[in-house]
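Translate sequence into structure tokens.
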Amino acid sequence: MTATVTVTGRGYDDIAVGEVLPELPIPLTRTLIVATAIATRDFQDVHHDPELARERGSKDVFMNILTSNGLAGRFVTDWAGPRATVRRVKIRLGAPNYPGDTMTMTGEVVSKDNGLVEVKVQGANSLGNHLAGSVTVAYLASEGKEA
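Result follows.
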């Protein structure tokens, strides 16, 4: 027996430059910050030990860049759908993400060419912009080739 998989969702032709992505609020829990630091094998104490983070000048533990990178990619791929794959994430960090806050992701399509879509992204919390940059995704045609 042969299984047939049907991929649905947004396709390359459904996207227009200037399209604004729906906002995504991400609650910044202590568990999210600590668990994702450990999951990314970042054992720096400032990401899991509040007392040591304060000794080093921070008000609390804070999110690591690998988690921020992953959340930026997730934000775009959740919008882009299952036909898209991440080609590049390029972000810069600003204000730290502390527990108890919310980071709201926003984005806008800034270019579309030869199967590639670049989305300008921003993640802001109550202190200001946590991350800013871009995520580029590639869309595959139904035959498995780039669009």
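Note: Helices lie at 30-39, 50-55, 65-80.
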